[in-house]
Amino acid sequence: MDEQPLSLTQRVEMMTSVIDLLVEITSCLTEDQFEEFKQFIRYESYETHNSYIPRFLRQTNHQEAACVTILTFGQNSVVKTMKILKKMNRTDLVQKLLETSSSFKKKPSDEPRSVLLEKAATMAAVKELLLEIFHSLNNGELKKFMKFLQMAFQNDFTDSLSFLRPSSDRTEIVDVMVWTYGRQSVDKTREILKKLYRDDLMHMFPETSSEPKVDEHQPPMFEKTVEEDVEHILLETLKDLKFKEFEKFKLLLQLTYFQRSFTRIQWNQMKSATTPDKLVHLMVMNQQPVEVTKEVLLDMNRSDLVERLLGTDSGLQGIYHNITSLDTLGNIERLKI
Question: 156, CA 20 to 30 Å: which among 17, 58, 132, 215?
Answer without folding.
Answer: 132
